[in-house]
Amino acid sequence: MGKKVSRRMQALLAKIEDRDYAPLDALALLKETATAKFPEAAEAHIRLGIDPKYSDQQLRTTVALPKGTGNEVRVAVIARGEKVTEATNAGADIVGSEELIDEIQKGMMDFDKLIATPDVMPQVAKLGKLLGPRGLMPSPKGGTVTFDLVSAISEFKAGKLEFRADRTGIVHVMFGKVTFAPDDLLINLKALQETIDRNRPSGAKGRYWRSMYVASTMGPSIRIDINALRDLKMNET
To answer: Looking at residues 39-60, what average pLDDT do you find?
Structure first.
C-alpha cells in the first residue's frame, strides 16, 4: 500500500515543478515549503556516479560551512596529559581520558562530535560498536583524530561537518536551517559542491554528478541545476 500523502504535503508538492531549478530559486522555494512547526534543517541529497563498494570510489571528507550549521555542536574530547587542559581551554564541552571512555561504554552519549588524540585511539577502538552506528567514531579522514585540538574544536563548533557517500553513492548533508537567508544557504551549498568536486574519488568513472535535490526536514524535494551551481562564482553574487 502506498503511503498516504498529507494534505499539507500535497499543497507543497503542487508548488514544485518537475524541472531543474536555478540554485537561488530552489533555496527560496525550500524556505517557502518549510511549513512544519519547528525550525527545519536544510538538507542536500546528491547522487554521484560512484560505486562505494570499490575502495577508489569512496567519498568521505569534511566541509566547513561558511555560514555555520545553525546548530549548537557539543564536542567531547578524549585525550591525555596536558591535552586534556588544552581541550578544556579550547571550549570542548566534555573532556576526559580513560574515565570518559568508561562513561561512553556505559551509554553516555551527550555529545554531537567526538575528537580523540592519536595516542588514545587504541583504547577508543573498543567503542567502535557503540560509536560506529551513530557516526561518532573518531577518524583521521573525518578530522576527528588529531593532536591539533584547538583548531578541530573551533572548526566543528563553527560549522564543520563530516559526510560520506552511502553504499548507493548518495550523499546526504544538512547544510543549514530554513531560517537562514537564501543567500546564506547558497554560500553553504556552494561550499559543499566545491568540497565534493575537490574530493572526487580517483576511481569515479563517467559523469560524476548525477542529480542534486534540496529539501527541508519535512518538506518536498526540489531538483537543482547542478551545472548552474558548479558554474556559480560566489564573489560575483
So the answer is: 96
Determine the pLDDT at residue 236.
43
Question: Grid coordinates standing for 80?
Answer: 591525555
pLDDT beyond 70 at 63: yes
Helix axes 149-158, 82-89, angle to 10 degrees: 30
How far apart, in whole angstroms, are the C-alpha atoms of residue 124 and residue 189? 33
State the chain's mean pLDDT as an integer.
93
Q: Which domains are delineated in the chain? A: 14-67+158-229 (3.30.190.20), 73-156 (3.40.50.790)
Give the separation between CA 178 and CA 163, rounded to whole angstroms.
Answer: 20
Least Cα distance to 23 among 165, 175, 160, 218 occurs for 175
**Three-state secondary structure call for residue 116:** strand
Q: Taking residues 179-189, what's their average pLDDT?
A: 97
15: CB partners within 8 A, 6+ apart: 29, 32, 33
